[in-house]
Structures are given as structure tokens and as C-alpha cells.
Design brief:
Blueprint lengths: L4 E6 L3 H4 L2 H13 L3 E6 L3 H12 L5 E6 L1 H14 L6 E5 L5 H6 L6 H10 L2 E11 L4 E4 L2 E5 H11 L8 H11 L4 E7 L2 E13 L21 E7 L3 H7 L14 E6 L1 E6 L4 E4 L2 E5 L2 E13 L8
Parallel strand pairs: 1-2, 1-3, 3-4
Antiparallel strand pairs: 5-6, 5-15, 7-9, 7-13, 8-9, 8-12, 9-10, 10-11, 12-15, 13-14
Helix pairs in contact: 2-6, 3-4, 7-8
Amino acid sequence: MTIQRVAALINPSARHGLAGEASDAAVEALTAAGLEVTPLLGASADEALELARTAQTSDHDAVVVVGGDGTIRLALQAVYEAGVDALPIGLMPAGTGNDTARALGIPIDDHPAAAAIIAGGARRLCDTATITLADGSIHAFGTVAATGLDALVTERANTLPWPKGQLRYPIAAVIELARMKPFPYEISVDGQHMERDLVLASVGNTASYGGGMQITPAALIDDGHLDVILVHHGSRLKLMGMFPTIYSGKHIHRKEVEQLRGRRIELRSSRTTPIYADGDRIGELPAVIEVRPGAVSFLASAALGGE
């Protein structure tokens, strides 16, 4: 597929407001790669979503996200709403986590290389997922849906004034672990029902979130399934010891951790339990999370599955 004209969806608030210079460099790299670029600058998430919807109905060849996983989520929402006629998505990573780019093998700190992938036009069909809340609203996402402790950690990290970048996540984890209480969950995975007292329940379409934390290390972005990680309630000391192992994915070998896999996951809790996806707060449980196999076409390296 030939890519010539792209709509560049830019969120200047990505990377906690540090994305301005990165987005300028990204647009320059796209132009240097021979692409005609129409910048779409969203001053807020709501405005960026409207721009993503507009881009999906335009005559461009692709929508390029200049930002992080939160901005990609908005582009995926527009893809979900556009259906089978959706334009492919290209990535110029400029966020805090950049876990979608990791899953696709797209260079995170090399704008010319990422632009070359987009200009190359190779497409890779990948899965997305949706979260349906109690009010009936449907929210698309691409990486991990987090509930329980990891949602609270993300919520805490988003409010920390310091430090910038990925270091805010382990600091937020220490704060939340110190005040942790178990969440009573009702869980259904493809119709299999269970009840658990948990610290967290995460549902992954990709292996990582939060900038490379391998919460669902076996998850693949194109396998047609979602991976579920349940962490059972235990002592704070054990959980603090477990947290660093999430970066390598070795937490799955601990007895507190239960792994499941399915296509439709239902989560409920008697406690008020927020749910985050791609680093953004979506709402609260109950929620139904479903995979959408092959729902999005990403521009990706031919060497890593693009065609």
C-alpha cells in the first residue's frame, strides 16, 4: 500500500506535557520521509478524539498518532466507530509508556526510523479490545485494562508532580501498596465464573503497560485472545517483593498469581473499583472486556509481520 498523505494526530499533553518538542521532531521526520503531513492538534483528549474521528472520514492514506498509548487509544476508538472502512494507523512514539509501539517493534527513540516504517506502507492486522461499562458506553483500547491496585497506581502516578516519566510508577506503587486493601471480585472468563479476593485483575491485549512492565507477558497483539492476570491478596511485604518482578514478567511464577486467557472477560466488585486502559481512566466496574480480532491495521515493519 502506498502512503503519501497522512493526518498526524498530535496530543501536546502526552508525556505529561513534555511531548511538544518530540511532536515537532516527529512531523519533521515524516516530512523528510516524503510524506505530506496534515497536523491535527488536539488541546484535550475530547478534542483529539473528535479530530481522530474527522481524520477517519478524510481522504488521507493513514492516520499517524504522534503521542503515547493514551492518544493511540483515541485513534482506536475512531477506528472502532469507523468499522471496516477505517484507515490504517501509523505510530510516531512520543508518550510516557509507548507500549503499543513496543508490541509492534516500532522504534521508540528514533523518529526517522519510525517515519520510514510509515512511508513503507506495510500493514499488520492486529487485535483491539473494548470495555463496555454499566451505562452501555463502549471504549476501545489497545494494550492493557487495569483494575484494582494497578489502576490505583496509574491514578496515583498521573497526579504525582515529580518525577517525570516512567519512575513515577514504582513510586506510586509503593504509596498504594502501603494503603492496600483487597478487592472482592466476581470474574467470568468465556463463561467460566469464579470469585476471588484480589489485589488486582489485569486484562492484556499486549504484554506490557506503564512503559515496559510485563504484566501479561504471554499476551500477543494478534492472537485473537486476551490474557488475564489475577494477583491474590497477600501480605504487603510479599506484594512489595513481587512488584519489581513485573518488569521482567517473572511475577507469573509466584503462587499469588493466577493466569487465564479468553475472548470475553466480565469483572465485578462490591468495592468501588476504577478501570484504566492504555493509561487512561475509563470508568468503574462492572465491565465487560472483549477482544476484537484483526480490528485495526497498523503500519509496521515488513520484517515484523507487516505486509
